[in-house]
Amino acid sequence: MKLTGEGTLFVKKKYAWAIILVGWLFSACGYQFSGGGSLPSGITSISIEMFQNRTAETGVETIITNDLIYEFSRHEQVVVTGSDKADAILTGVVQSISERTISHTGEYTSNERRVEVNVNLKLTNRSGEVIWSRKSVSEDDAYAVMSEKQSTERRKREAIKTLSKRLAETIFNNLTADF
Question: Are 99 and 119 found together in one domain?
Answer without folding.
Answer: yes
